[in-house]
Amino acid sequence: MDATAASPTRSKLMSGDQYRESLRRYQPVVYVDGHLVESVADEPSLKPGVNALAFTYDFALDPAMAPIALATQSERNRLVNRMLHVNESSGDLLNKLEAVRVLCQETGCAQRYLAHDALNGLAQATAHIDDARGSTEHRARFKAYLADVQDRDLSLGIAMTDAKGDRSQKPHEQANPDTYVHVVERSAKGIVISGTKAIVTGGPYMHELLVMPSRNMTQRDADFAVCCAVPIDAKGITLVSRPAGRPGEKLEHGDALFSRRYGQATAVVIFDKVFVPWERVFYEGEWEHTHVLTYSYATHHRHSCIAARAGFGDLLIGAAALMCEANGFDPGKKSNLREPMVELIKITEGFYACGVAASVYATQDKHSGSFMPEPVFANIGKLLLATQIYDMHRLAHEVSGGLIVALPGPDEDHNPATAATLAEVLRANPDVPYDKRIEVARFMEDLTASYQGGWYSLISLHGGGSPAAMKQEIWRNYPVGNKVELVERLLERGVLHQEDRAITRNRQPGRCCDTGCTTPGQPVMVPLPVGRKAADGSGETPKQ
Questions:
Q1: Using DSSP, how many helices (H) and how many strands (E) does the chain show?
Q2: Which of 23, 264, 331, 358 could be bridged to 337 by S-S, CB 3.0 to 4.6 A?
Q3: pLDDT beyond 50 at 115
Q4: For residue 273, how far is the Cα from the chain centroid?
Q5: Closest by Cα among 24, 22, 38, 29 to 235
Q6: Which residues partner with 229 through β-bridges?
């Protein structure tokens, strides 16, 4: 590093409270449970989601978290929130992975990392289009938008998944074209879009929406090949959202111990002739390049999902260990508890290791210069978590015992006719008070055996694409050809490589560390500084 280089300037990062206040300056049309929301920031049914986003803002202001929470965008020499950073090295990917994991240890799902994934995919797509066309306008628009988003520290909702209509039909073949977002008008000032996006994570409490195509397009789908950014309260946008947390439940004395604080809303977003100025249109009509954005975004997002579910796995591991203790058992001495605990650890760290490998084996995109996670490891990690999330719940239940669903409701803790008896008979470990035991049981119920638990399972399975999509990418990118030719060489067949041979088509060269394998003392990840305050105010840095 050049010792004379100027220190980076710093974006004006918001705090959690400033984020909440910023939402009050927007007036989006949002419906939740059939009623029109007056203020997103103050709506009780959305509060857990707003809290989760607010935590990402406070996290970035914590000096102890700065190495992973912040990043330097070198082109502007600007320190920005990592959730809005375009990766410039494999180290950036490693730090993003760790940041998302720590965020999701606290919130279950931090949601804001989708902006990181979309911005990285868009950086690659716009550069690819410009290079193919010999132009510069797509890059220029994206870079101007990126700088604006970073400097204002915005939260972005990713409007990618279309309503889709008849899944067997392409966009232009749909009986109702509004099942996909499409351009309905073009002028010298901009474009007008209509259509519907589904499953927009955190939609109501975002500042802006990034509208992106959800599939590869054909020439006849050109009107549907549109990517642009719109404010959340732009005229013509309506959001129909699920509540965040646990809707429809009567929670009085014992609010859900986790989802009362943090949750996630997902929204259907209806665009009805929404105007978008050209400076916020990153491409439209470039149907032949839609695959670049869908592929790059999916790879980045699956890489982030690995970290998110590792953070959730950390919650399960901690709660399961506490349940063992409260039940009077030491997993270190009871093999019937130790084995499922180790299995839970193996699953969590196994798919997280794929994320680390995808970071270390990252490649630099030749068009944008940004770094892309290695797709095979990214997709394997996401596939593992998607299919093993149910095993994670099962293992947590196995070591916790049946109390997590057999326990009477929290109102009984305040019932003078039952509270004293329950406290006496439902205590197990004499060193763990009754209220501490049932607190952990209800926490585990909230994570795994409630509406929220079911949501975590489903979003883990289908979020970022279905298992079938990940299997397709693994097969498409895995160098089976190298393995086939290895065996043929050992069998001394003398077969020459054939480019048109299906099973040997995909081949990759070996790889080596770019600093050389003999360079001593080159740390990749270093411990974070001690000093971050624990949730209990003790000042001790929490273990990750």
A1: 15, 15
A2: 331
A3: yes
A4: 30
A5: 29
A6: 210
The CA distance from 208 to 202, in Å, is 11
- Read off the amino acid at residue 378: A
Strands 156-159 and 208-211: parallel
The 10s digit of each residue's pLDDT in 478-524 is 888 888 888 888 888 877 777 788 888 777 777 776 666 555 555 55
- How large is the angle between the packed helices 90-107 and 47-61, nearest 10 degrees? 130
According to the model, what pLDDT value does residue 495 have? 73
Reply yes or no on whether the pLDDT at 534 is more than 50: no
Q: What is the DSSP string of 156-203?
A: EEEE--B--SSTTS-GGG-SSGGGS-EEEEE-SSEEEEEEEEEEEETG
pLDDT at 180: 98
Instruction: Tell which residue, 307, 299, 301, has the closest CA to residue 95.
Output: 307
Structure token digits, residue 426: 């439902």
Q: How confident is the model at residue 543 (pLDDT cuts 50, 70, 90)?
A: very low
Q: How far apart are CA 358 and CA 92, in angstroms?
A: 12
Would you call 508 exposed, middle or buried from its count of C-beta atoms within 10 A (0-12, 13-18, 19+)?
Answer: exposed
pLDDT of residue 535: 44
Residue where the block lists tokens 């869908």:
294
Place of tokens 């803002």: 57
Structure tokens at 412: 């009984």
Mean of pLDDT values over 312-323: 94
279-297 burial string, b = 16+ CB within 10 Å, else e? ebbbbbbbbebbebbbbbb
Average pLDDT over residues 446-466: 83
What percent of the chain clears pLDDT 70, i.e. is strictly above it? 92
Place of tokens 């100027």: 6
Q: What are the Cα distances from residue 261, in Å, to 288, 305, 409?
A: 44, 21, 19
Residue linked to tokens 């790879």 = 299
Residue 53: closest CA among 81, 92, 72: 81
On the CB side of 534, how many CA atoms lie within 13 Å of its CA? 9
Cα distance between residue 52 and residue 144, in whole Å: 28
d(CA 29, CA 240): 9
| Pair 43, 20: CB distance under 8 Å | no
Length of the chain: 544
Say how many CA atoms lie within 13 Å of 197 toward its Cβ: 31
Residue pLDDT, tens place only, 467-478: 888 899 998 888
Rounded CA gap, 155 and 114, in Å? 9
- Token pair of 200 as six digits: 């927009």
Coil vs helix vs strand at 81: strand
Nearest of 248, 250, 155, 159 to residue 198 by alpha carbon: 159
Which tokens go with 211? 């509208």
Computed over every residue of the chain, the mean pLDDT equals 89
- pTM for this one? 0.90
Q: Tokens at residue 297, please?
A: 């975004």
pLDDT of amino acid 72: 96
d(Cα 284, Cα 269) in Å, to the nearest integer?
19
Closest CA to 79 of 58, 61, 106: 61
Task: Please give the Cα distance from 60 to 72 (Å, whole number).
Answer: 13
